[in-house]
Every structure is written in C-alpha cells, then in structure tokens.
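Memo to structure team: turn this sequence into structure tokens by end of day. - J.P.
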Amino acid sequence: MLSQVERYAVLSAMGTRWWVPRYQLPAAQPSMRCDWPVPEAESRHGAEAAMAAAGVFVSPEHTETVSAAEDFQNTPPSTDDVQDHSRLAVAPEDGHEPAVETVEEVRPMAVEVWAMNNRWLWVVELDQPGLAHDPQRLTLLSAIARALHPQRIGLVAQYTLSWPVEGVPVLRGDQRELADALTAYLTGPQFSPFEPPGVMAFGERLGRLLDQDRLGRPCFSGPSLSELLSSPDAKAQLWQHAQQGLSAAFAANEVVMEA
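Reply from structure team:
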C-alpha cells in the first residue's frame, strides 16, 4: 500500500498531477499485483545463460565489450569535467554576470465552497486569519445572494479545501499545481449530485486560477470577501460584474433544493 507521498511521486512521474482514489466495490476480489519489469542487465545475463544452456557459443570478446560499454555508461563524470562544462555553458558573451531568475513561492490557499440551493457553487477564498469564523461573512454573502436572485437563495452544503495537501510535496513556484488542485476538487464526485451550472469565485487570486473551460461551466469572479467587508469600492465592482452577466446567469437557475 503506497503512502500519499509515494502515490504522488509515482503519478507525477507518469504525468498525472491529481487523482481520485478508486472505489472498491463490496465483495469484489482484490486487484492483481503486477510484477516489476526485469532490469536490463539481468535480462542480458539471463539471455546469455539461456544461449549457453542451448549450446549457442558466446564469445568472450562480445561479453567484455558489452561490460566495458556498461561500465563507461555507469561511470559518473569527474568533478573537474562537470565544473568545466558548467563554466562553458553559463559563460556570458559580454563579460557580465547572467541575470538570476527569481521564482516566487506559491502561497498556501484555503477556500470555502458553498453549494447553493439553485445548484451554483460559490468559492470563497479565506485570505485572512479568522475569516472563516467571522459572522459578518454569512450576512454579507446572504445579502449578495438576495441581490442576485429573485427567489429565496440559501446554503445547502459547505465544504473546505486547504492547499497544499498535507504530506504532498509541492515545487516552489508551481502555480499550475494549485490550479489543478482547485479544478480537480470543484469537478470532483462530491459535487456530482448538484450538477453545478456555474461557479462564482470571491477573490482576485482565485479568479486567476480558475478556468471555465477546464471547469466545464461558466465561472465569474469578484473581489475577495475581506475586500467586500472593508471597501465600498469592492462592493461597487461586484455590482458592476452583476450587471455584466453574473446576475442574469445566477438567476436563470431556479431553486431546486431545500436550504
């Protein structure tokens, strides 16, 4: 049984950056384990042994030549060669030191996902400590919902996602990994019963990470919740988004669930 870190390393090497655990059906037989491939060196020696057992002559010159080639491939280059090569590779033409590219470290992210009773998903970035326990956020989001929909809009379910996932290594500056994590979570099986017709993201950073083409549904973004609580300009910006299509798209889906 692989640990979460080992599973991540294996799938990352295969080109898969996110995964959903496979569901084990009740009373189903366990999956068969696959044998590891035989290393190339053992395969060659096994073939030589089989040829010798079959009476096929293998010349010593052939064996020595193959062994010398393998030793040459497996011999690491000397330190001097590596240093000389690195100096030749990075030597600037104009005599100036090359510019060092700085990689900004991706900050962790915590989000709340609200499943509304018209099946929309509201994704709220918790960009300040204590925001998840601030009662004003409930009042504000309820007021926004009433302004965008003529019916009584309410909350059906609430979810929380924290990134990076505990125990999973993340490369510094890997912004794509965060975007993949958010997309995989919002399109995961926990939201399949809702069949969300749209997503509303509260937070500028969150809006840049979410892509409606990858989500497979319309995605609108607005100011963060902390900005809406402290800035009248942020509320005016959100109202401008509402008039540009958000309100019509959100109100187009009737209430189908009990809040």
